[in-house]
């Protein structure tokens, strides 16, 4: 639904770069169904659509569901591998079953909070006073590098609490072989020890050249003097150091929430790329098409985007990393801090991993601008442009989030309600909700809708009160985010039901009805007690149709699932004292319902899980004429 035929897979395959990166497959609902990495995106992604390839049944099935794909370019295959892992853990794609693990990539942990810090191997990044470097894909290389740091810079490896335990025990073997200066004996001051540590941190922080040059020199020197074993040892250390030197940008060491923002502009078109870093890991990205003026300054474009984007998004990260300064940075920081409820920093990294991460965002923005210009334009027209059309039609300034509701039943049987959510013109399936009607009997759609809306917004108000009482951060509950617009699957009657519920709860949210013609097709909108025409060929009309279809689909699927469960209802479920466990036990013990019906109490009692009272209840039920019709098809 969200991904339409405007995405031409054959054409998009031609645009793939021969670069390492991660590719993301989407189905017709725009859900992510597969995430993979590649040394060459061009070669790897093409293989999925080549008929001559033997892909196996699972991948064959997956390929038939692909409606579009996207990709993120990285600087190395190692970065692609770590990003792939992050995205799989975040989105849990259906066809990534072999990659659904909780493998933890190794980090190098430096306990800088100690008087005499240590350099340690770690599989997790805790929120403590230590500094973390990584993640890395080679645990062996990490261990070798830690050993290297200890040997070259005499960093201690013991677990002694210093300086409290100074002098309590003799120095360890590392002191005697010249690999530790024995701070446990007070043989080195904290200041001198810290100088050694700073040199090690300099390497781990990205300044690799001096150490790599020194190791290369040592290796060449030993080789030139025919000390081949020593030269081989220096060579191995050099290779380990080189592997760790390929430090990953995909996960940062501070565990903070950040957004990385960069843009690419050409003529009157610009693409802004945003990487979302949560808890130190890149978990996703999005890009936005912007119409700009000729020769408009990039800093002005970036500032304008930040104000518009974060005015409508519910979550504000602690830090924004930009590729350039914006002139009103201080004012933007104050505004974002007020929205978040705590300090927000806007920074422009100049060196190191953060600067490289911004560069990666800029590079991906340029790729999108160059290769996907027309497709992105069409997509923005279908989403952001369609929302803008709808807002103009209704006379609203801004519509960020829309919620649509529908009721599904068959003559009042198993009535259910659905709530679907669209943000920026795209479905947000994680916020979809379904309701089983509790208080209404019979086919009364108005009363059912009133129950659904009352439950939804009452829950939301309760969550908001709890958040305010507990002074919770920007993390919202499942109902606490309210929409900018409510769409009802109907006209005047449905709209007035919604308006009455909102008025009773003290809420002021615009409500719009989707009016249908005699053929059950949307013909216009009902808003503020009047019907508004909307051109059938407009993107706004198409968006309304997609929202309406999605609300129907979600409600019908839920209703169908409940009917399926009800169809396996057994006559045994109607017997007092017979629950699921005893019903299963009886069905296993007797070949058919006829055998259960004709069994004596003693035979029934012999079945597993049965007691005398339950056996008597079953016998009485069947012999009191309460089971006139037995549908064997629903039993087995």
Domain count, please report it: 5
Number of strand elements:
19
| Helical residues, percent | 40-55%
Which structural class matches the secondary elements? alpha+beta
Mind sketching the topology for me?
Elements: H1 9-14, E1 21-26, E2 32-38, H2 41-47, H3 57-65, E3 68-73, H4 77-91, E4 107-110, E5 119-122, E6 131-133, H5 139-153, H6 173-176, H7 190-204, H8 209-224, H9 228-245, E7 258-266, E8 269-278, E9 281-291, H10 298-312, E10 319-322, H11 329-340, E11 345-347, H12 352-371, H13 373-394, E12 401-410, E13 413-423, E14 426-427, E15 433-436, H14 445-470, E16 485-488, H15 492-504, E17 511-516, E18 522-527, E19 530-533, H16 539-567, H17 580-589, H18 593-598, H19 601-605, H20 612-623
Helix pairs in contact: 5-9, 8-9, 13-16, 14-15
Description:
This protein is α+β, with helices and mostly antiparallel strands and 636 residues long. It has 5 domains: 91 residues, GIY-YIG endonuclease (3-Layer(aba) Sandwich); 139 residues, no CATH class; 114 residues, 2-Layer Sandwich (Nucleotidyltransferase, domain 5), CATH 3.30.420; 169 residues, UvrC, RNAse H endonuclease domain (Nucleotidyltransferase, domain 5, 2-Layer Sandwich); 64 residues, DNA polymerase, domain 1 (Orthogonal Bundle). It is 43% helix and 18% strand. It is built from 20 helices and 19 strands. The strands form 4 sheets. Strands 12, 13, 14, 15, 16, 17, 18 and 19 form an 8-stranded mixed β-sheet that branches. Helix 8 runs antiparallel to helix 9. The protein is globular.
